[in-house]
Amino acid sequence: MNQDWSECVINDPYRTTMTNMADIARRFANVMFSFYAFSAFFLSIGEHLLQSMDDASQLNRSRELPIKMEFPFDVSRSPIFECFLIGQFLYDLVIAFVCGLLNALLVALVLHVSGQIDIMQQDLVEISNGKYDNSTFLLVIKNLIYKHQRIITLSENIENLYTHLALMQVLWNTLVMCCTGFVIIIIVNSGEDTANLIKSVSYYIAIVMEVFVYCFAGEFLTAKSKSIGDAIYESLWYNLPPSDSRIVLFMMLRCQKRLTITAGRFIDLTLEGFTSIMKASVSYVSVLNAMY
């Protein structure tokens, strides 16, 4: 990645492309951190703020911490309760920021790969426009092959970094979405406890968003990898000398193996996979609701 940014310093089109991708990654990180902070707030302090607005609820219900804990003393008295409540909020906030950081890092890495693919496509367009003569063509093709190999290596590193983490996220989040959805149905049917409903819905949305980020990143990476082959095919390679066109055809052949992110190296993270996860969780919720 350092070499990629070093090339951007001496090339304005490269720098513009990569800067745009970095800006998108920064915006996404801000959105993710804000959303997770919002969810952590409703999972801890938000519920008690809503309960405090209802005087009847405060009279009939003893105060409980969001994270169930046992102490040898009464924690429902002020200011002990408020201190523990703030501590649990900070704990939820740290966990939420760690999850947001992992998601933001994945998106930033995928966008970096996307920027390099866009740069490679720009170079292929310049080849099609006849910008390079025969003396420099082989050198340009060599640089493109080297850049393509760097893209493949970086994608494989992303896959190695996130494949096992994605597997745990898919399995665990499917189970959590099932249980949380069942809790939401129970709360809605009871017609009471608005605070718990808001807390459960915010948590459910956060879990769904986390799975969606992984699946969308895999889908986006796959689509961008396919665009390399399309750009090579549209680069007027058939007008090149036979010896040079064969080199381009080998690049096109390598693009047939798409880049992707998998969960445990056997489940492709795509939007189709995301719909399958949602269908599975909804099916489990239906079974639990029928048994309830």
From TrEMBL:
The chain crosses the membrane at residues 28-45, 89-111, 170-189, 201-221. One of its GO terms (cellular component) is plasma membrane. It is a multi-pass membrane protein. Coiled coil: none annotated. One of its GO terms (biological process) is signal transduction. One of its GO terms (molecular function) is odorant binding. InterPro entries: 7tm6_olfct_rcpt. The keyword Transmembrane applies. It is found in: Cell membrane. Keywords: Cell membrane, Membrane, Olfaction, Receptor, Sensory transduction, Transducer, Transmembrane, Transmembrane helix. This is Odorant receptor 4-like. The lineage of its organism: Eukaryota, Metazoa, Ecdysozoa, Arthropoda, Hexapoda.
